[in-house]
Amino acid sequence: MKPSVVTIEPNGHFCDDCAVRGAAVCSSLDAAELREFEHLGRRVHFGSGETVFSEEEITTSFYNVLEGVMRLYKLLPDGRRQIVGFALPGDFLGMNLSGRHNFSADAIGAVTVCQFAKASFSRFIEDRPQLLRRINELAIRELSQARDHMVLLGRRSADEKVATFLLGWRERLVTLKGLSDTVSLPMSRQDIADYLGLTIETVSRTFTKLERQGVIEIIHGGISLLDPARVEAMAAA
Amino acid sequence: MKPSVVTIEPNGHFCDDCAVRGAAVCSSLDAAELREFEHLGRRVHFGSGETVFSEEEITTSFYNVLEGVMRLYKLLPDGRRQIVGFALPGDFLGMNLSGRHNFSADAIGAVTVCQFAKASFSRFIEDRPQLLRRINELAIRELSQARDHMVLLGRRSADEKVATFLLGWRERLVTLKGLSDTVSLPMSRQDIADYLGLTIETVSRTFTKLERQGVIEIIHGGISLLDPARVEAMAAA
DNA sequence: ACAGCCGATTGACTCAGATCAAATTTGAGT
DNA sequence: ACTCAAATTTGATCTGAGTCAATCGGCTGT
């Protein structure tokens, strides 16, 4: 979906009340740096389904997710889609070598990002190795996750994929909402399918099967883990 | 396979004649830094099939591949294997956050690496943002490749996987051997299968099919692209 | 409340790729 | 050259997940 109404807040001192101040790239900055830093970014809002950036575009900005969930994906020429990840508050997007984004990103529900112009952000990093080190850490963590996901895509069965996804997603929500057996799933079944390398029908059938086995309960906007241990057993193979 | 005979050359001034001096992480260092740097590393040889490091191990070293090919892989508890990449001369291995390697690496044929103790390497980086920037670049490039590979694993057919692999491998060999329609494949069929998320039988059948179609020729230790354009068409989907 | 729409579920059937099972080729060691 | 083991190829069959095709259910707007 194309962006329709994008709201940009006026610049100002807003890092103070930023939810991800301690989590994101910002965590590597001291108070003085943070004051300087906040003038570089501006908060931008996106509505549900709006595209924040797309694959083929020249990179002009970096993004720090503040609120909401985004799907990150690549498309094949014939329309097949692979979701390479979901971005949550605290995630940092826009790093690349080619000068182009190598995936597209759109909002799942309402999203707020902190957007930085590429040039001024790069200049800011220049003499702050601490920030560069932080960004490097984030890249290495993502690389590790990407490798785990390759194993899932290449070598796991549909049941294992779904079980692993539910546990992994629950884990990602821990820092945002605390650990809970009730897992909200803001993304569609199609999104889950495209993340796991399955079809929507297989995802749906697997959910139903798990529910009939009494392992999960499908609730509005998510699932509830009735028997986490059994889900873990399914995921482990 | 366990390491049997690992030959370690005595330390010394060897960066001068290092094949990857201009390519690897070293390319970010000036002559003076390189002189200091070479005292940190030592060349280590591994025989065919030997394990350089494994997944669960605590990381004690970083590695710069000098000669040969390595397979990088993860295993599931039941033995299923996913190869997450192949390492070639110039590749840098060992970055991680957890303090543990998150994949295993073994030699395909004879391999020489430049091995750095983690502690001294980290200290050397400390006040050399240039080197950190270089390492960050390498991480970002790998991340981009990892995402491409996710698309392949999750959304491409066996034919597309094999065709994409042949072209991608040929491309990786360009910087080492120049562009050629003759592509050497040092890894086994099983390795290729585990890289593409297929079985050895499917890889073998696909090779044979491509050969019967006159698109490739299976030669000793590799293949020859008889009709590169047609392989590209198969890969693009 | 109702109509219409979109996402999700369910069922019937198909098929790409896996599995099982031999050959066949290759290669290292004698 | 000869033997044995391992890697690869080939064939026959099976099956997990995909495809095609209806429903079903939950919102939205009237």
Automatic annotation (TrEMBL), chains A, B:
Residues 156-229 form the HTH crp-type domain. The keyword Transcription applies. Residues 25-94 form the Cyclic nucleotide-binding domain. InterPro entries: cNMP-bd_dom, cNMP-bd_dom_sf, Env_Response_Regulators, HTH_CRP, RmlC-like_jellyroll, Tscrpt_reg_HTH_Crp-type_CS, WH-like_DNA-bd_sf, WH_DNA-bd_sf. Keywords: DNA-binding, Transcription, Transcription regulation. This is Helix-turn-helix domain-containing protein. It comes from Bradyrhizobium diversitatis.
